[in-house]
Specification:
The complex is a heterotetramer, with 2 copies of chain A (309 residues) and 2 copies of chain B (133 residues). With 309 residues, chain A is of the alpha/beta class. Helices cover 40% and strands 14% of the residues of chain A. Chain A has helices spanning 24-33, 43-46, 55-67, 91-108, 129-144, 161-173, 200-204, 220-223, 248-257, 276-298, 302-308; strands at 6-10, 38-42, 71-79, 112-117, 147-148, 151-152, 181-183, 229-234, 263-268. Chain A has a 9-stranded parallel beta sheet with strand order 5-4-3-2-1-9-8-7-6. In chain A, strand 3 (71-79), helix 4 (91-108) and strand 4 (112-117) form a beta-alpha-beta unit. In chain A, helix 4 runs parallel beside helix 5 and helix 9 (248-257) packs across helix 10 (276-298). The relative contact order of chain A is 0.14. Chain B is mainly beta and 133 residues long. Chain B has one domain. Helices cover 5% and strands 46% of the residues of chain B. Chain B has one helix at 69-74; strands at 13-15, 23-29, 36-37, 41-48, 51-53, 59-62, 65-67, 79-80, 85-91, 99-109, 121-131. Chain B has a 5-stranded antiparallel beta sheet. The chains are: A alpha/beta (309), B mainly beta (133). Chain A binds chain B through residues 12, 15-16, 18-21, 23, 42, 44-46, 48, 50, 76, 78-85, 116-122, 124, 127, 197, 206, 274, and chain B through 1-4, 29-30, 33-37, 39-40, 42, 73-74, 76, 79, 81-84, 110, 112-119, 124. The structure holds manganese (II) ion (MN) (2 copies). One manganese (II) ion binds next to strand 8 of chain A. One manganese (II) ion is lined by residues 151, 153, 183, 231, 233, 267 of chain C.
Chain lengths: 309, 133, 309, 133
């Protein structure tokens, strides 16, 4: 075990490149060239025959992991509660979906599965079937040694009933196979550029979270014990290695101080012009590694103490 | 590999015998970052040279299967994968004229994790593409 | 045999797309979607292990021809006379190069090989080894039933010593395995846009041919009997299906009147922004087919008579 | 598949042990429409943040083989294929700083079918790319 961060990339970063300018092996290459050790995929995006798994594809998957020296980290799953126009998913269907994804993730060697449940309101309250679905697959998760980690994603902050609900669930069940995935988009403290067709009225209204919900990084302390995985969401890093939206100079020291030594899995979510994501992800890795190195130089013995505590 | 724009130029073609065209076909790349069950696709509206072909009257071909608009909602298993194109089959007796056309689309996608007022969400695209024969 | 044109595409059209947004099968798909029956490739571009031919690749090649119902047309070859900084190729080396390409072309099923010889002056006079090289492989070309067709390419017009030299060669040897490839760029009658870094001084000087050398289409009559293959070079066709540089409305009737029924193999040579070539080639096919149809409707019996003559 | 610009971002990296960098590596996509024998490649000049690394002092790695500038001319058989990248290895004790750099290149290619005064012909590219560690 190391007290350093582990570095990874989610192939979500290469959205729109994947299938137009990049195939699976290209993606592995770009991830490995960042110096990452971990790769994150989305089941319904990167498994060509999802939910089937073809033997030839499985062979290729393990061949690529080996060739590019990467380990599978997190597998993204969706529980499409709003499955038909006039009908929601039942708990049984949701649990079946989660079972499918846990089994796929396990066969591919993943340690985490992120289920994205449909929501019922603007607060992003997950559909009430979430709890029943997860409870029904906890034994399977334990058997496969996979941790199920719903995502805390803007506009949902850390101090919110949704997060409380997840923590209550952990405490009630005592499970070690459920936790939180923190998406660093919650720390965004400067606005995103307007999207195509977005108006100032929209930005002031339902889209105001795109200005950043500015969760104080100190609040990480309240959930870090439940957080085995972090998606390093970002939108634009310029030629001065300056991030326009996410305050990494606060986020990184906070995570280091808390002794976090799990993955930071890059999630680029900016301009989708082809090939831009490749360079953006590289900039993020340069920036975060630099901040980590600076913190370690300023705090030579801290991370080890924290871990031993 | 597909063209980057959701609207694909290759595959845009008239349907039916040379002298008796019945409509046209338009290929569209999955514009979402994940493949979607067809029941989450609330159809695709096509506009060619400002003439509108509504989502409800188009057909949708995914691999070997062709769906009517109503059949999309019932297909909760088959997915429209990322990196693949769906074919929208549009009824138009006589087909389209040979030459360059301005083609616009609106793809309606229902994302269950979006707040209810943003479901379905539209994806738009617009470009000039060509009917060869 | 048909009295219509045969339609093809040279993969040269997809330069810069190939290997960045398009692999070999993608290229086959786009060609077949134009309604073409023929595909033209460049040896040193499209054979990944050139001059080697791997068995697996050969299998794939024939598989793709079958799947997309395309036949191989012309195989582009280069005789790099200026092979080293202080040394030119010998006749022996040049003949060996041409032998290699004839044999590759034959194994892949091509009917034509276009050798591009190095030149010795601004008039594009081919290096003097050309004649010896070709003469030494004429028997092989006959055995393989391939026609060697050097290209008449702007700024070389039809009435030019280079063309005369080729025709003299045909008459002297009596060969049926040597001819001319006409590149329709010689008919360009309006200027190309300036290339990056090009100045008005350059355009007035050495680059003046980029304004178009405007060969009168009537002169096709003087060489059509030696011309079994045509590359349909073009640069930009706009949204009104209007070509900005090549006068197709003259070229197509001229070729039809002469009874030409060989290939028109698209060579797009314009903006290299990704994916642009795909749509440009489609526009050219729409335009040329339209002009051919219009000519046939106006001249209902002519092409057949011409062929029977 | 490679990035569209001749200069590739992935692969731009320092060479040598972490604490004792000896130089850097830059990947360049074959920018010509056909693959070229190495003897037709008259070297690649690299400029990083306005500091020039001349073609004659760089090394060129193609697959398993590494060529000096002078060895390029002697390599009349091996080709730099389309759709592949060459690695330019540049000597620079200490390597480059971590962060974003402005990188420019000039690739000189000798096209025998160009009039003599246009041989070799330059290909230029220029973009910002990043050294991660
Ligand atoms: Mn995320
Ligand atoms: Mn040509």
């Amino acid at each position: 075990m190391t007290s350093h961060f582990q570095y990874g990339v989610s192939l979500y970063s290469y959205t729109d490149d994947f299938g137009t300018v990049m195939d699976l092996e290209d993606a592995f290459y770009h991830v490995s060239e960042t110096g990452s050790t971990g790769i994150e995929i989305l089941g319904e995006t990167h498994l060509p025959a999802y939910p089937q798994l073809e033997t030839a594809w499985l062979d290729r998957w393990f061949g690529l992991l080996d060739k590019y020296r990467l380990e599978p980290t997190n597998f993204a799953s969706w529980i499409d509660t709003d499955i038909q126009r006039r009908r929601d998913m039942t708990v049984e269907e949701g649990a079946r979906q989660l079972t499918t994804d846990l089994e796929l993730a396990s066969r591919l060697g993943f340690k985490f599965v992120r289920p994205k449940f449909g929501v019922i309101d603007e607060e992003l309250t997950p559909h009430p079937i979430w709890e029943g679905c997860v409870e029904r697959v906890l034994d399977l998760a334990a058997k496969l040694d996979i941790i199920i980690i719903p995502e805390i994603h803007s506009p949902t902050p850390i101090r919110h009933p949704v997060v409380e609900g997840y923590i209550d669930f952990i405490q009630r069940t005592g499970t070690k196979h459920f936790g939180l995935l923190i998406d660093t988009g919650i720390f965004q403290d400067r606005p995103l550029p307007f999207w195509q067709h977005e108006t100032p009225e929209m930005r002031d209204g339902a889209m105001s979270f795109l200005n950043g919900i500015k969760v104080p990084v100190e609040q990480l302390a309240e959930v870090i014990e439940y957080t085995p995985f972090i998606q390093a969401k970002f939108h634009h890093i310029d030629e001065e290695l300056h991030d326009h939206n996410i305050p990494w100079e606060k986020v990184i020291p906070a995570l280091k101080s808390l002794g976090y030594s799990g993955y930071l899995s890059s999630e680029y979510e900016g301009k989708r012009d082809p090939w831009v994501a490749i360079e953006q992800v590289r900039r993020q890795h340069a920036l975060i590694r630099k901040l980590e190195r600076e913190w370690e130089q300023a705090n030579p013995s801290k991370p080890k103490e924290q871990r031993d505590a | 590999m597909l063209e980057h724009t959701p609207i694909q130029s290759s595959g845009f073609s008239n349907i039916g015998p040379d002298e008796d065209r019945t409509g046209f076909c338009l290929r569209i790349r999955q514009p979402n970052y994940r493949g979607l069950r067809m029941s989450l696709v609330e159809g695709i509206k096509v506009v060619v040279d400002e003439i509108e072909y509504p989502a409800a009257t188009n057909l949708y071909r995914l691999g070997e299967r062709t769906y009517t608009f109503d059949e999309l909602d019932a297909e909760t298993q088959a997915r429209w994968p990322v990196g693949t194109a769906i074919e929208v089959l549009v009824d138009k007796p006589g087909g389209l004229d040979v030459g360059v056309h301005l083609v616009e689309i609106e793809v309606l996608l229902r994302h269950p994790y979006f707040p209810p007022q943003f479901r379905p969400a539209p994806v738009h695209d617009r470009r000039h593409i060509t009917i060869i024969r």
